[in-house]
Amino acid sequence: MKRQSLFIAALFSVLFELSVGQETRPFLPEVPRWKLMVEQTVYKPDNLWDLIDGAADLFLEYNFVDLHLGRYANNEDVEIKVELYRHASAADAFGIYSQERYPDYHFLQLGVQGYREKGVLNFLAGTYYVKISSVQASDKVQDGLLSIAQKVESHLKEPKTWPPLLATFPRSGRTANTEQYIAKSFLGYSFLNGAYVATYDVNGPFKAFLIETENSDQVQKLVATYLESLKKEDITTLQNGWLKVVDPHNGVMEWGWKGKYLFGVYGNEKGTSRVGVMQELAGNLRSNP
To answer: Disulfide engineering: 85 pairs with which of 1, 129, 134, 264, CB 3.0-4.6 Å?
Structure first.
């Protein structure tokens, strides 16, 4: 019994040391030739409005966990701010990142992906959306943004992988860097959540979407709920059992399903390539359980 008690005590001691080590590990790294000043306030869902009042609701939609802030200053009076937004999942972090990027940004190989504009460098790293900025915009400041971003990215040690379902979208005709993840109320419907979206330009621009549910029964419930909002004359059944609908808010759409996945296309209904993209997307789902 005494040996057992000593073993349990030792085990608890090790676990305690590990937990303390995790808690005290700095969120931001030291960077040579830069002095780091960490803000003591950690922003969480209940006080994020204190910092970004107008944008807080959007971050909360993507299961925001916490935000750590730091500032780096050098001896040339340059100051660079770093914001570490942590979200509950990599999909959520990608979602908020995708809401703020534009296809014509200057993209970087940093983390999963990053982009740099004047005085701004943001990147996605696993469950983190990292925003680095300065009110100054000289070439030296731009170099400082990059060097600090590289140190932060290395320090976080997060996976450099996109959400797996993005690979399901056909590549042909897809407009680069338009993929998004819509956490809630996709297309304006409160029951449609967790939608991946990509923009295509084949005989005109349109969008394709994909929603993963728990099982095929849930897919059918979503479809049934959606159809309840439409008039019968606005619903056409296609040969393969999928649906073509006239949505009062989003125009003509095609809807399909396979297993636990719901998908579709909308926009530019006169184009002839929309259904082809949808069919290819459905075929790519075979490799996804």
So the answer is: 129
Q: What angle do CA 71, 74, 76 make, to 5 degrees?
A: 130
Which superfamily does CATH assign the domain made up of 164-287 to? TM1622-like (3.40.1000.20)
Q: What is the pTM of this model?
A: 0.88
**Angstrom distances, CA of residue 177 to CA of 114, 188, 287:** 11, 23, 23
Q: Where are the domains of the chain?
A: 27-156, 164-287
Classify residue 111 as exposed, middle or buried by CB count within 10 Å of its CB (0-12, 13-18, 19+).
buried
Domains 27-156 and 164-287 agree in fold: yes
- Closest C-alpha among 112, 113, 126, 123 to residue 149: 123
> How many angstroms separate the CA atoms of 270 and 7, rounded?
72
Nearest 5°: the CA angle 275, 276, 280 is 115
Q: Hey, what are 202's tokens?
A: 């084949």
Nearest-angstrom CA–CA distance, 106 and 125: 17
Tell me phi and psi for residue 193, to 5 degrees. -130, 155
Q: How far is CA 88 from CA 49, 60, 103, 108, 273, in A?
A: 18, 10, 26, 24, 36
pLDDT tens digit sequence for 41-69: 999 999 999 999 889 999 999 999 999 99
Task: Mention the CATH class of domain 27-156.
Answer: alpha beta
